[in-house]
Amino acid sequence: MKLHTYFFALILFVLPSLSSAQIKAKKTNVLLIVVDDLNTSLGCYGNTQVKTPNMDRMASMGVRFDRAYCQYPLCNPSRVSFLSGKRPENTGVYVLNVPARKALPDAVLLPQYFKNQGYFTAGAGKVFHNAKMSDALSWNFYTDEASIDSEEKAAIDTRYGGGDGRPKAYVLTTDGGKTRDGLNTQTIKDLLNAKKDQPFFLAAGFHKPHLPWTAPKKFFDLYPVDKIQIREDPKMVNIPAVAMQTELSGFAQPDSRAAAIQGYYACISFTDAHVGELMEVMDQNGLWENTVVVLVGDNGFHLGDHEGLWAKLSAFDNSTRVPFIMAGAGIPKGKVLDQPVELLDLYPTLLSLTGEKDLSKLDGKSLLTYMQGKNNASTYAKSLVFHYDPKTKTDVEGQTLIHKDWRYTEWGKGEKGAELYLRKSDPNEFLNRVQEKSLLNLKLEAQKTIQLGPVAKPGESNRPRALLEPGMVTN
Question: How far apart are CA 93 and CA 87, in angstroms?
Fold first, then answer.
């Protein structure tokens, strides 16, 4: 028996449960679902191609934040931010290999807070960036199962073996039960059953739809390549060169954009099926009345749009906008809220829902009153990203400010360019209007708001590996 399997059995069946008094004192559980690289290609967000019945059902049961944004469009910096309640400017984490605890040794991270309050806390899958970077102080139990699906393992090995970094999909002939996400889903299901009678904070971290795109054949069959609908984008106008960068810049385009999108959509539906398994256990145990369920993506993902951008790390909406759905205890049903919110708001909102009053140490704001019908406490969402300039071999800071009606982005404090997009006439951000005199006051308002924000702490930033010269190192 593997060591982690033995420890899991110990957690489930040997460690004492909390007393009835403790249970009564802590009535609201939390199930946090974090999905890697999930953009808003969901039915409930208006994508009529993608089949996501379970996420759609969750949205209908609770609140869907239509315009939610990550604070850094890359896996680890985003997760360190929303799990610590601190902006990336204040964490100094802009790369993939800095653990939250190393950057913030004295922070009370989100699962740790609940553990300190007497909750049983457990995670399975990609919650923090990976198993090596998980936080021991946060969990009573944590695992990120290695795949025992030989086809998935081969695809992962190919993806991380260097060389061609283009998006690629792999059809699994298996049922997916032995993939990483399949195994981790079973772990969370077991924990929901075992810990249903005591306060818990459980976190399910799904690897898909992160590359490589691997899913069983039945999910690919939902999306015949010749039926994939691809929007014809207008020409991009006045876009500064520094803005046109993602994690995969420098690699060639996929052989088929439609086939690549098929793989991404298949992985979304595969993940949706896993979400459905968790919701079924919630139904069976009657947990919706005393459990807050949250589903978020850690960052968005380009799919060949904007003249061939793929993946994340841009400041555009497709990279920074994420799904954010809440349902269950204390959550209004069937609401769609359209003011900009931040993943940073997740931590204080969960604390508000579970009775915590002092949110002063967190950079975000509670969304509880917004869900209850009052105005959002903030007009803007903000994201930070660094882009690499191969000519000067320097990193350029990008600060982007998102209003319901517009987005303003500034590169290198404006010295490397700026962007202004109007949501009503240009919802997908192709026409940069920053030079228009009629919009000068709006631009000045945005600049002032950015200047009032925190100054980014020094730190390494992630650089697209295909843009680096031989011998240069990227994180």
Answer: 9
**pLDDT by residue (tens digit) across 330-369?**
999 999 999 999 999 999 999 999 887 778 889 999 999 9
Quick one: 424 and 287 in the same domain? no
Does the pLDDT at position 405 exceed 80? yes
- Tens of pLDDT, residue by residue over 422-435, are 999 999 999 999 99
Residue 20 has pLDDT above 50, yes or no: no
Question: In 3D, which of 156, 102, 107 has the Cα closest to residue 134?
Answer: 102
Q: pTM above 0.90?
A: yes
Torsion of CA 256, 387, 397, 71, to 10 degrees: 40
Q: Is residue 36 part of a domain?
A: yes
CATH of the domain at 157: 3.40.720.10
pLDDT mean over 224-234: 95
Q: Which residues contact 330 (CB under 8 A, 6 or more apart)?
A: 28, 292, 353, 368
> End-to-end CA distance of the chain, in Å?
35
Give the end of a domain, one of 327, 349, 379.
379
Is the same domain home to 393 and 273?
no
The reply to whether omega before 111 is within 30° of 0 (cis) is no
pLDDT greater than 70 at residue 9: no
Residue 200: beta bridge partners? 120
Residue of 342, 261, 329 lying closest to 293 (CA atoms): 329
Does any domain span residue 8?
A: no
Q: Is residue 303 domain-shared with residue 421, that is, in the same domain?
A: no
Structure token digits, residue 314: 């841009």
Residues near 80 by Cβ (< 8 Å), separated by ≥ 6? 86, 88, 91, 93, 98, 99, 100, 103, 104, 128, 129
Give the position of tokens 């090995």: 157
Give the pLDDT score at 162.
72
What does DSSP say about strands 417-422 and 406-411: parallel, antiparallel, or unpaired?
A: antiparallel
User: What are the DSSP calls for 69-126, one per residue?
Assistant: E-SSSSHHHHHHHHHHT--HHHH--BSSS--HHHH-TT---HHHHHHHTT-EEEEEES
Decide if pLDDT at 7 tops 90.
no
Residue-wise pLDDT for 409-423, tens only, equals: 999 999 999 999 999
Does 340 share its domain with 416? no
Task: Residue 436: give the domain boundaries.
Answer: 383-467
Hey, which residues does 294 pair with through a beta bridge?
32, 326
List Cβ neighbours of 290 (8 Å cut-off, separation of 6 or more). 27, 28, 29, 329
Q: Which own/partner pairs from 450-453 qualify as long-range (CB within 8 Å, at least 24 positions apart)?
A: 450/382, 450/399, 450/401, 450/408, 450/410, 453/87, 453/89, 453/382, 453/399
Angle between helices 180-194 and 3-13 (to 10 degrees): 20
Determine, yes or no, domain membership for 39.
yes
Domain boundary among 379, 409, 434: 379
